[in-house]
Each structure stands twice: as C-alpha cells, then as structure tokens.
Amino acid sequence: MEKPLDKLFDKFLQGQAIFRDRTALRPTYVPESLPYRDDQMNRIGSILGPALRGAPPSNILCYGKTGTGKTVVARYVLDMLVSKAKDSGVNAPLTAFVNCRIVGTNYRVLKRLCDQIDATMPDGSEVPFTGLPTDEIREVLKNKLDSNPSILTVVLDEVDSLLKRDAGQGNDILYGLTRMNGELENSRISIIGISNDLTFKEMLDPRVLSTLGEEEVIFSPYNAVELKGILEQRVALAFNTDAIGDEGVINLVGALAAQEHGDARRALDLLRTAGELAERKGDEKVTQNHVREAQKVIERDTITETVKTLPMQSKAVLFAVYVLASKGQQNIFTGECYNVYSDIAKSLSIDTLTQRRVSDLISELDMLGLINTSVISKGRYGRTKRIKLAVSKKQIGVILDDDVRLSNIARDLESD
Questions:
Q1: Could you report the per-residue pLDDT of 24-45, keeping only the tens digit for each?
Q2: d(CA 308, CA 201)
Q3: Residues facing residue 384 across a β-bridge
Q4: Domain 37-218 indexed as CATH 3.40.50.300
Q5: SS3 call for 219
Q6: Of 253, 177, 183, 178, nearest to 222 (Cα)?
Q7: pLDDT tens-digit profile of 142-151?
Q8: By the 8 A CB rule, do 252 and 224 touch?
Q9: Phi, psi of 98 (to 5 degrees)
Q10: DSSP, res 56
Q11: Which residues on adjacent β-strands are paired with residue 192?
Q12: 310-415: CATH topology
C-alpha cells in the first residue's frame, strides 16, 4: 500500500529539477567574482595586505545597510588573502568569523575564536561551552596564538548587536579584543567589525573607539541595475537552464529589492523562495506569480524571526503595545506603554528600565518596522510619542503563544 508521503517524494523525483545549486542563493555563499564592489574590496585588501609580510593590519569598520555585501566582501577578501599567502609560501594569516547576533557574551565570543583556531585546554581537552572563568579562556586563546607566530583577523559580523543587547558587556568584549595585542608576544590580532547601524560608533566607549575605528569602509545600497546584474550572475549558478520563466522574473525581483533600499540579500532570498515554491507545486518554471507569493511568505517569516530574536526587554516593550492594542486602544502614548511594560517586567523578574530607556527601545522597534511612532506636542506638558502596531495583532499573538511566560502575562493584562 502506497503511503501518502510516497506520492509527495515521487513528485520531486519525477519532476523537472528547478535548481542546479540552491546554495548559490544563500547569504553565506561566496562567488568567484563580486560585481559592483571593486572599490570596497580594494580598500579592505590594501588594509589587510601587510599581513602577508607578518605585519598586523589596522582594524576596520564596515558600514552599510543589510544586504549591501559587507559580509560576503569580507569573506571574499580574506579567502583571497589566505590563498595568496599559501601560493607564495609565506605564513598564512589565521581567520575567524563570529556572528555577534548569535554569539552575544564575552565567554562565547572567546570560545568561538578558540574553536576556529583549534585552541584547546592545557590538558588537550576542548574548550567547554560554559562554566570556566573568562580570564582562563583568554589565556587559552593567547597561548595558542603565541605558540605559533601569526596574524589573526577576526570578523565580528553585526557587531552593533553586542552593544544593543548590553552596551556595557558589548564594550567590554570589544575592549578585551582590541587590547589583547598588548598581551601577546609573538602574534597579533586585527578586527573587521561589520555593522548595519550607521550610528554604531556613537554607542562605543571612547577607549574602544580609539583603537577599533582605525579604518572605515562604507557600503552604499545597490541600485536596480546592479541588483539585476547580481541576480543574473546567481541565476546562472543556482538554476537549471530555462528554469526561469522570462526576464520579467529577474526584473521583478530586482525592483522589489530596490524598494527595500537595495538589499541584495533580500533579492536572493526572494528568488530562492520563489524557486522553492515552484518546485513544491511541481511547476517547470519560476514565474512572476511565484515571486509575488514568495514576497508574502518572506514578509511573514521576517517579522516572526525579528520578534523571536529580540532581547527580552524589547519583547516586553513590544508586548506592552500589543496588550494596549488588543484592548482596542487607538492612541497609545509612551506613558501608558511604560506603565504596562513595568507590570510585564515585574512579572518576568527582569530589571525595570527607566522611561527614557524604554523610549529608546520604542524608537528601535520603530526602526525594525514592528511599530509606527509619531512625536506629538502636548503644549506645556512637553512632547510624547504616539504608538501603533505596524504588524497585525494576530501575527504578534501567534508569536506570543510560543513564549509561555509572555503569553500568560499578556492574557492576565488583557483581562484587567
């Protein structure tokens, strides 16, 4: 007796394959050539070049909105640097990559660096995921580097998230890394910080800023023509011949991504999702209808992922707005939001922030597109923010149900 899944899998086996290599549409994929980023590649390459002679490069800060090629350019240049060193018979620089949105504590950053350069404990065991003093992990890292003279280049992707999560701890992490050169005898560390926030430097402690911000590289958004060129390159790599219905598919993806401030990552995600939708339906070609359907899927998934990865304080503020909106309140002001937030913070047993700090978090949520705010004047009573949810209450509610603590607290507040 044929099982239901047999028919589903048979459809994939028998149907015409859409993809040749779908990994070419992933953000982490590094192609053999990077169009429209020659200036940035040359700038970073000229800064890192001294590593080929054993000299420590300057630290670099790369700025630009999401999807402007910062991460892929950094990976590309480092790969070329290591390859050139090996071909020339010189000591190849070490490289390490840390996504600061995922690895957010001093210990975990050091642990990730130890893992990538194969540093082990004095007894030869692997560095544990947690449980040791941070100073001990620092010693393990330093001893490994000094045991074989080398240059370690550390890429800190989304480095701004360290400070947004906890400014004090974020500055401590960066300060520790930038000052480690003073503790090393035979090796040196250089840092490439990648930030989506153009105001990132304003959050840095002055002592960190003086050493971290030695060189800056700006990544401007791609325009529609450049996005089309990038998409054409990736289509040739990712899709089988004739899998794209017509040129209008690429034009539409490029136009939609250009509306999002030239986000190439979004363009590639949109194209990949459209291809996957066509594949699941058993269609032989990707059409503009698949692209428009993919856009809806990505928007829904992006909001869900954004909310789930928010720090708990930001979640508490967002759900304060959600509670007030669920009660039918049309005009939500900062003071009312703060009162509900305070109740949520107490119920979650987290620190209750000041109203000024909550106002900053409201601005960050506005920047993420989860809420809309407008500043209004109350005459002699000063100014306040009028707040509205920018996404549907239903969608926030579904995400809320995945967090039992917040779900129970929100229900209690809604029933008050």
A1: 998 889 999 999 999 999 999 9
A2: 26
A3: 376
A4: yes
A5: coil
A6: 253
A7: 999 999 888 9
A8: no
A9: -130, 120
A10: P
A11: 60, 155
A12: Arc Repressor Mutant, subunit A (1.10.10)
